[in-house]
Amino acid sequence: MRKIVMFLGAVFLLSTGVQAENTEYLITGTKPGFIHILDMKKQKVVRSHEIPNAGRTVFSFAPSPDGKIVYVLTNRMKSIVGLDIDTGEQVFRADFIKGDIRRQAFYAFDISRDGKELYVYQLSTRIMLSEYQQLPTRIAVYDTSSGLKAEPIRTFEAPRRIHMLMKSTDDKWLYALGFDIYKMNPQTGEIVETLPLRNWSLKNRSLPDVLDFWPLWDQTDIFSTPVYSVKTDKAADDPGAYKTGLMTLDLDTGKYEINDFEDTSVLIFSTVVSPTGKHAFGTYTQLTKIDLETHTLAGRIDQDHTYYAVNISADGKQVYVGGAACDVATYDPDTLTKTGQIFLPKGCGDQSTSSMRMIQRETLK
């Protein structure tokens, strides 16, 4: 039905001689509480909005499917705010603390594919006179049309140590990344499948190590992250004992893979899969290129400074790094040559660990 509507809309625009102009934007955030909208073709910041009551903090982002609202985890992980990208108006707010119960999210939240619901992982503690009472971890679901005093429309318990939530493209499933990856029914919280990570069964292999809370699947609907492990059948001083792999989860098909691609030589914080399907790119102190067909290291260069987050253009022709300091740099994916650098507005306290999300929508005037 959606494809039919889009087709009819395109026919109407063509018949009237009106062409809808779309532009690709990158969204990032900086302390003490701002979001910035970057036109990546023009290599400049086109909007900056202050987040109300941000508590001097900015964490994860989730843009609405139409690219008009960005939801921000802020206020020291105690609130999610929805801001109109055009005007900066606050159109949604969910404050988690209620009475004697302190709740905080830990990076993990996502929006449904129809834009109607937010799924937020929450840690809950009851504050008592002489002690703290730990409550079950949960996922709270919010209606995005709830305005500035949003309350959950339903909740369900979830495993501990979740740091990423991801909605499947058909909106039927919610993936929760923690020690393992849990495929959940978003209506009831039932875990219908567990994809092994910490509990993998590789022979002669240590427990894997993963640190990732950057949602970077906008262009492909494939989540990826570096995975580190040790081959226990090799000597501790053997460089071949230490392996870096790439884990991928296709949010469309559910396909799940982990493939080693090099003996560990550098740290990589986050990765993104190219829309070409041939390569992935990772960042920290170096920009890394990974061949997805041969599962080998395809290239690596030093960067100007540390970058935590990496993203890519919809055509796969530009790689973006940011999420630290006060700039976003652009690289050529073939040569890994730096092609641009956008400096964020004066007053930037740094991007810290904020996400970098990509949207495509009509051009901002």
Give the tags.
globular; 365 residues; mainly beta; 5-stranded antiparallel sheet; 4-stranded antiparallel sheet; 1 helix; disordered N terminus; Methylamine Dehydrogenase, Chain H; 4% helix
Please, could you describe this protein's structure?
- The chain has about 375 residues and is mainly beta.
- The chain has a single domain (about 20-360), classed as YVTN repeat-like/Quinoprotein amine dehydrogenase (Methylamine Dehydrogenase, Chain H, 7 Propeller), CATH 2.130.10.10.
- About 5% of the residues lie in helices and about 50% in strands.
- Strand 13 and strand 14 (about 175) form a beta hairpin.
- The chain is globular and about 55 Å long.
- Mean pLDDT is about 95; it is low at about 1-20.
Layout: helices, strands, pairs:
Elements: H1 2-16, E1 22-30, E2 34-39, E3 44-50, E4 58-63, E5 69-74, E6 79-84, E7 90-95, E8 101-111, E9 117-127, E10 132-134, E11 138-143, E12 154-157, E13 164-167, E14 174-177, E15 181-184, E16 191-195, E17 222-230, E18 242-250, E19 256-263, E20 268-273, E21 279-284, E22 286-291, E23 296-302, E24 309-312, E25 319-322, E26 327-331, E27 338-343, E28 357-362
